[in-house]
Amino acid sequence: MNIKIAVIQFPGSNCDLDTLHVLNNVISNGVEAELIWHNNFKESNYDGCVLPGGFSFGDYLRSGIIAAHSPALDQARVMLKDGRPIIGICNGFQILTEAQFLPGALLQNDSLKFICKWVNIKVENNKTAFSNKMKKDQILNIPIAHGEGRYFTDNLKELVENNQIVFRYVNNRGEITKEANPNGSMESIAGVCNLEQNCLGLMPHPERASELILSPKETIHGLLFFDSMIEFIKKRSS
Amino acid sequence: MRKVKTKDTELEVDLTESEVKYIKDFLKREPTTTELGMLDIMWSEHCSYKSSRPKLKQFEDAEQNYDYVLAGPGQDAGVIDIGDGYCLSFRIESHNHPSAIEPYHGAMTGIGGIIRDVLCMGVRPIALLDPLRFGPLKNNPHSQWLFKYVVKGIADYGNCTGIPTIGGEVEFDKSFENNCLVNVACIGFGPIEDFKHAPSRADYPGDYLVLMGGSTGRDGIHGVTFASRTLTEMSEADRPAVQIGDPFTKKMIIEATLEAIKTGYVRGCKDLGGGGISCALSELTGNGGTGAEIDISKIFTREPGMNSFEIMLSESQERMAFVVQSEGLEKVLDVFKKFEISHAVIGKTDDSKILKIFDGNNLVVNLTSEALAHSPVIQREEKKPSYIDELLTQKTPDLTIEIDKVIYTLIGSENICSKEWIYRQYDHEVGVRSVVKCGDGDSGVLRLIGTNKFLAASVGVNSKHSFLDPYNGAKGGLVEVSGNVIANGAKPRAMVNCCNFGNPEKPESYWFFSQAVQGMADFCRVMRIPVIGGNVSFYNEDDVSHTTIKPTPTIMIVGIIEGEKNIVTLPFKKSGNEILIIGDTKAELGGSEYNSVVYNIEGGNPPKVDENQVKRTWNFLFELYDKHFVKANHDVNKGGFVITVAEMCFKNNFGADLDLTNCFDNSLRNDEVLFSESVGRFIIESEPKDYEKILKIAKKNNVTVKKIGILISSPEINITGIKNSKDIKLDLNKMKNLYDITIPNIMEI
What we know:
The structure holds two protein chains of two kinds.
Chain A (H helix, E strand, L loop, with lengths): L2 E7 L6 H11 L4 E7 L10 E4 L19 H11 L4 E4 L1 H8 L6 E3 L7 E9 L15 E8 L3 E3 L3 H6 L3 E6 L18 E5 L5 E4 L19 H16 L1
Parallel strand pairs in A: 1-2, 1-3, 3-4, 4-11
Antiparallel strand pairs in A: 5-8, 6-7, 6-9, 9-10, 10-11
Chain B lengths: L1 E4 L4 E4 L3 H11 L5 H10 L2 H4 L4 H4 L5 H4 L3 E3 L6 E6 L2 E9 L1 H6 L1 H17 L4 E11 L6 H21 L3 E8 L8 E11 H5 L11 E6 L9 H5 L19 H16 L3 E6 L4 H13 L2 E5 L12 H6 L5 E6 L4 H10 L4 E8 L3 E6 L2 E7 H5 L13 H6 L10 H9 L8 H4 L10 E3 L7 E4 L5 E8 L2 H6 L1 H18 L3 E10 L6 H21 L3 E7 L3 E2 L4 E2 L3 E11 L15 E5 L10 H7 L11 H16 L5 E4 L5 H10 L4 E5 L10 H6 L6 E5 L4 H11 L3 E8 L3 E5 L7 E4 H16 L2
Parallel strand pairs in B: 6-7, 11-14, 19-20, 26-29
Antiparallel strand pairs in B: 1-2, 3-4, 4-5, 5-8, 6-8, 9-12, 9-13, 10-12, 11-13, 14-15, 16-17, 17-18, 18-23, 19-23, 21-22, 24-27, 24-28, 25-27, 26-28, 29-30
Helix pairs in contact in B: 7-8, 7-11, 8-11, 11-14, 20-21, 23-26, 24-27
């Protein structure tokens, strides 16, 4: 039986088709991803869901906050509770923090500018639904593209203790430095998960790093996120 | 501006006295205020091309002469068939005047407009490119302000709509200080079937006219007439004529439009840009040979109490008009409802050939579609400016400065230095198509999912060259921009242009325009490149400082690469490989960065173009590509070939040992050899084992090829063999640093 994954399309999502492309055309087999308009999303039809990048509702009030009140998030909350995997990429991460699926907030980059470039992130926790195919401390090449990606939390201690920091920005030697932190994120945090580790939010775009032809580094580390998700779903159902 | 009496009151218009008389004779009555306002817009330079049309006729008819051109000039955007059932649509236009007054929203709405032009051909916009021009940045807060906010406007709009900005160009020159140029280009991609559903025509009577998107407000009234004047001290007061962009609504419009077209019930589609709904309705009915009855009380407005004049002339952004088959109306409206986007059925087409506009029961406009679409043509005088000949004879002083110092200065000059500060702010990867990304090639290369093809696109022109010789300058722009896509392995398929010039009423300004158009038309005819669209922006001068911009016929070329293995990129690949220069270097320092940066002179002998030579060079390169002899390629551009070599070294930290002995015409001076910007040249990297074969192919094609050096693994460029001069050693780390820091040093506090 195919694994069914929902890619939720909010008004203003713009990485929805990209993510759908990777799930349906790049991942080898057994996955059936569907683009679903946020008002029509029914959780019971899916094994997991993706909140894609973009500018939901124009990010006009505050990034992600309007989408966080969409009926889609009520549906997603049911998924969250029963342990199905949910990933928020870029704007999806912003939505997940606004909806309090994940701790913290994403503030404007310290440069005050939008930044589009390839960065390195280090795997801090390889036990989550989206990192189980990675090695601890593995360095991943992956691009970012955001104006508001500076991670902030007033509860850092708890995050560290609970192993909720999943990815940190590093240089190509794996070191955490000021120069390697593209947006001024607290503790160079690039991605965090919930306590149960079935929900991940991150600013970088795995769907842009899943095909060799798009990769300036000759790596396809983005695929590891989706492969991990599939592995997680398979393990859950067995 | 003159006051004209109308049926109901009087109106200030830009129409000439004879045009007003023509209108009254044609109508055989006094026009209403709304009618006169509509005609004022439709007959403005911006909408009617009344000064430029006689010259634009020189471009050959693309649709007639090229079987793969599906839509040519005169449509919202050109369309070409690329095979496999897919097409590309693209266009370039200017948004100069609004951006000079309000850079952020001027640039935003420029992007918004060009996206709509491509969208209304029925295909998804997949790429943006932005050629920009400003005054020099250094010590110039005004230029910095324009630059910063134009870039921010493009970034905010493109990023939010999810269309990657894959390329662009920027020039800094004093002549653009008050009149910055913001040209915007968009490329769309989709099935030919979808394009066929969205002509800019209402061909059938009895179809519904549906307005969709943003509400109609008082912003932007008379935007086009404002763009058809020179800037004055009063222009700041025209700021309300600049519209406000709303990229989120645009994103919804893109998705809703594409989904509506998929229903199969859309029979025509037109964006509302300059001239607003007046322009859209008259073009739809005029092109289709139909008429329409419209009730403007149905139009959703941003504020109450707007009169028919304001509604018809509003240029509020983010609006589209659809012609919908009556039986499919509900299906199309359901799509708009899904996206929660405002829409209204505002009228129906008929076979009257008359556009009748009612405000409730009140008939406010009753004009034949013909009257609106057929503006008068003006034959302008042209005259070569008297200063040109003197400029052409200007001599570059003898080279007395040390050559390495000159090169360090050039690599950090504003026109040559890295533009990373700009493109880092653009999401250039959204869409998962960007194969050659900003900074990695001469052009942006996108894969076209669903085919085995890749598109390469580039924009630009050298305004310093065009200023000295607009005919060869425009041709040179074509050589360079085509060269950019060729350097990435693509065959140029079509071009669009954006002509930025001064006041056409001045014979000297009109001469530049006339010469440039002639140059582009001649080149494209010989090279078999169809011109599938264009835009003309006149009046780029200001009456305060009495400056006219340097003539800028911006060009965009879109090329196609067949298969991934045929993509060529810019960075050098392997130490020990050879560096070859392709093409002839001539004594052409006129308009060069060297002249400008080192001596602050604008004159001299600018590059000339010999189409036959260019053709031979291109054929030669394609033959090398077929044999996969080219490992890296970069066209020689501003600053000369040493700059080109350095740029190719940067990415993979290579260096080069160059020996120029017997590589160049012996009659050339050293500065001409090193810094001439002769067009049509390339630097390629090739393997030593292929050298003899390359020479053989060069000989067959009668193309000059010289081996100027080899790649080394240490970051330095060593140059020997310079006539009567000591050897030069350039530190590439120092060059890279100078290349990188120029713009951040100015723009970052």
